[in-house]
Amino acid sequence: MLFPLEHAFARHGESPISGYAVTRALVCLCDHETLERGLSEGGSTPVQVHKLDGEAIARMERLADARGRPGAASKVAALLCALSDTLRPNAASSEPQTVPGEFLQRDLANLLSIRHESVCRAMREFGKESLITKDSTGIVLLNRERLEAL
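Request: output the structure for the sequence above.
Response:
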């Protein structure tokens, strides 16, 4: 799907600035300030879509970082930290950092492109070292600093 964005912001006789949305990618040929102004004039929905797009890109970058780590334990630790940060970004600082319980170890393995058994082994070791625990809300990060250091 391809559709043009509005030609709303011409500058002093210059050609109008435009962009195109192609499926989930947005190619925009204007500066960030102009884009933000255009989005805000379109109401709250375009601004929310733009914000969600930025959050999705940040989450993908964190996932890529986790996948690039050496060793399964380091990959799993980085993924747990990334998921706890990006899936609940507005959680109160007093709340324990968690990965929602809907994530199965098989899902974590698929996100990291490693074997399910490797994730199970890493999670078991993290539990023995009191780095994580599981409760009704999901996987609770007990020692975030040590997980990040792996």
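The helical segments are 32-41, 44-67, 72-87, 105-112, 116-128, 144-149.
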